[in-house]
Amino acid sequence: MLRENELAKKVIGLAIEVHKALGPGLLESAYKETLLYKIRESGLSVEKEKPIPLVFEEVKLDCGYRIDLLVENKLVIEIKSVEALNDIHLAQTLTYIKLGNFKLGLLINFNVTLLKNGIKRLIN
Fold it and tell me: CATH class for domain 4-123?
């Protein structure tokens, strides 16, 4: 069983493959589906659009929060295809990490020339 950092390294490698093949400029959904395929092909378990409840005063509320991809039930992947990542994207990903009690998340913006410039690691 891979730890979060090992999973992140593997997923980043797969994301780079996807970005090299598709390039920037596509819709977020195209990158999400392609990365989902590559992660599954690599033998890792992954869930798409994983619902995550908000717990408020001991009550689980379904507020429509959904993690783009959840790898091995421990690594949160939030995918974007935007001009630039901003604070709200970071806050969204951190919220998913905290609500799900995960340790690590990757915020990946595919709309960049070099993918390494579009990846942010977020830790809870």
Answer: alpha beta
